[in-house]
Amino acid sequence: MNKPVETTHLSRPAFQASGGAIEADAVIVGAGPVGLFQVFELGLLDIRAHVIDSLGAVGGQCMELYPDKPIYDIPAAPVLTGRELTDNLLRQIAPFAPTFHLGQEVTLLQRRADRRFDLETSLGTRFIARTVIIAAGVGAFQPRKLKVAGIDRFEGSQLFYRVKHPERFHGRQLVICGGGDAALDWALEFAGKAASVVLVHRRDGFRAAPASIAKMKQLCEAQEMQFISGQVTGFDVQGGRLSEVKVAGGDGVTRRVPADVLMVFFGLLPMLGPIVDWGLDMEMRQLRVRDTATFETSEPGIYAVGDINTYPGKKKLILSGFHEAALAAFGAAAYVFPDKMTHMLYTTTSPKIHKLLGVETPVFD
User: Fold this and answer.
1) Residue 2 binned pLDDT confidence (cut-offs 50, 70, 90)
2) 260 is in an annotated binding site
């Protein structure tokens, strides 16, 4: 299961500027496949990166929308799932020890007088960056909300759309709504740990991995959890707290289900969010690239790669995003190392790159 990833830190500590801001050579906005590969391409040029994503875990659309569906157009990988692609990318970038700042979105991006950039996130994390690469896909993902009047007052206390600290829900009466991988994964995770687990989905068909569906049915037969076909349409309160949810079934019967925690996994909606306020040239809700030699945006030092950008001939493919990330890294190097010529090196033969990757330089006869 793609559980939240705690913030990981660079092997060499990030410098804390005055006022608590983190000074960074590069900040990547977005931790999907293209954002992860951007870490690698920057790392080959000895540029360490901080990565920010609104989701609580890395992988972007691949992990949130199709973690177990096959992908067929990644070079040298005839077939792999979104989960496998994400795991492989994480292994590939491990030598460069990026810092991930997850579960937060960039709310402020502006130019400083010294030509660097100020960034601030929704959690108050602040950065001063030499360069910024936006790999935000189709935007920051926001959860689809449960449409029950008045239920939103419990969000963050008894109503949750994401799980950051699973141990908080042990021993609780859980009602989990949804029919995808996230809903079933968490239902299976909490079965036997929570006081009760009731899975609610509008129908008895699911959009989850077959193994997860089979395991869920097995647990229901063993009375270790329960499945109800229907939708949450109301709730009851006792002492100011959520105590029950009302589930309207397809059979016309409304059931009252005890609940002190309600988890809802209806999928995610892509929202551009604060990106539209950063003053960058846009076209059809995408960032316009002014130069496909570097994928720089209208603002020097800020780059756009992956599905967030647009230019003549643009193709929304992961493969295209990888290509864009490679060229954007060379563009960013000019800002990070303004007094140094950046040379093209090959991973097969370069001792410098081998040192960065932590591998031995092969000896050829």
Assistant:
1) very low
2) no
73 is in an annotated binding site: no
Residue-wise pLDDT tens digits, 208-258: 889 999 999 999 999 999 999 999 999 999 999 999 999 999 888 999 999
Tell me: is residue 181 an annotated ligand-binding position. Answer: no
pLDDT 10s digits, 308-330: 999 999 999 999 999 999 999 99
141 is in an annotated binding site: yes
Domain regions of the chain by residue span: 22-141+269-357, 145-266
- Assign domain 145-266 to a CATH class: alpha beta
Answering whether pTM is above 0.85, one says no
Is 173 annotated among the ligand-binding residues? Answer: no
Consult the annotation and say whether 348 binds a ligand: yes
How far apart, in whole angstroms, are the C-alpha atoms of residue 236 and residue 314?
51
Contact in structure between 52 and 105 (CB atoms under 8 Å): yes
Q: Is 257 annotated as a binding residue?
A: no
Say whether 145-266 and 22-141+269-357 share the same fold: yes
Q: How many CA atoms lie within 13 A of 5 on its CB side?
A: 23
Q: What is the CATH number of domain 22-141+269-357?
A: 3.50.50.60
Order of strands, edge to edge, in the sheet holding 282-283?
Answer: 282-283, 286-288, 309-310
Residue 143, φ and ψ in degrees, nearest 5: -70, 145
